[in-house]
Amino acid sequence: MKTFKQHLNEANTPVVMNKVTLNLAKRNKIDLVEVEGSRKKDDNTIMFFWEEEENEPMFTYRKDEDSGDLYFKDNIWLDKSLKEELPNWINTETKLREMIKFLGKAVPSTI
Fold first, then answer.
1. What are phi and psi of 16, to 5 degrees?
2. What is the pTM of this model?
3. Taking 90 as the threshold, does the pLDDT of residue 28 lie above it?
4. How far is CA 63 from the centre of its chain?
């Protein structure tokens, strides 16, 4: 039987970009790129590139160094109507994958 702490840890699994998530992104024509912060205190940035627009990312999220959670950082060229559908905070791998699937269907109609 699992302890309460084990259940809590499973529920709060930090966001990671494992092979399954990267492959899902690729199938949805999205490239995820993690860039390390330039200073010790800076959190990493996750850039979301559309496969056909490799010159600049659609938008970025900040990855909290301590929790691994993602926080919306900046919209570069993603259509405003889609940007408003993105979560401000992503705290699980499942939520990240849901967003990737949403983008894979929604972005082509706005380009």
1. -130, 155
2. 0.81
3. yes
4. 9
